[in-house]
Amino acid sequence: MTSTTKAKRNRRMAREPKAEAASNANNAAAQPEPAQEQANADASKKPNKTEAVLALLKRTQGTTLDELVEATGWLPHTTRAALTGLKKKGHSIERTKVDGVSRYALAELASQ
């Protein structure tokens, strides 16, 4: 029987860490509080595609599926799934047909 208590050898890294990473680790204590980071992230956050969809739905005439697909770059079935996701988040989306084309709008705005 052989002994299982051999001395462990030091592991080598595939590549040496960059000097920047080491200096960033030292500066970690100087970083702002997490609450401040969240506030800064919200302020500098760029608009996402869901916000673009909501902007189109808020228009007085609403929007068509083709307009949504063009604005987001999504496929039609993905765009419809996004509308379903917005419904699950509490937005009430109304669908109407105008000249055989479905138009989508937020129900609160469509009723005004």
From TrEMBL:
Q: Which Pfam families match?
A: DUF3489
List, as start-end ranges, the regions of compositional bias called Low complexity: 20-42
What is this protein's name? DUF3489 domain-containing protein
Top-level taxon of origin: Bacteria
What Gene3D superfamilies does this protein's entry cite?
A: Winged helix-like DNA-binding domain superfamily/Winged helix DNA-binding domain (1.10.10.10)
Can you name the source organism? Answer: Tsuneonella litorea
Which stretches does the entry tag as region Disordered?
1-50
Q: Where does the record place Basic residues bias?
A: 1-12
